[in-house]
Design brief:
mainly beta; 6 strands; elongated
Amino acid sequence: MTQKTGIISNALRAATAGITVNSVMRRETAEIAEMRNIKGKVTDLAAYSCGETITVKGVVDEAGGEIVRAGAVLELDAGSYLIVSVDKPESGSGEVTIVARAADGANLTGGPATPPEA
């Protein structure tokens, strides 16, 4: 894999951060509708919504840890994804794991994800 970088933007904080990507895993999904006959047996399957979930591991260049939060937007490989979750282990490597999702070319609106009260 060639070296990848991404941009994370947090509308609530009006700030951005860069991420140096160490690995990316992509998962494509589809919502499936089932048609059943009178006996309850499935007769047809149809995909009606397709999406992609990515899991990104990398090092973020932010000092305070306030930008990379669930609800922010990740831009990577000419695609934009809404961040669903962030794992920030307390380790010397500084590597974070971000899970983000996009579906059907939907508009992404970063939400006001705020840190939990201490």
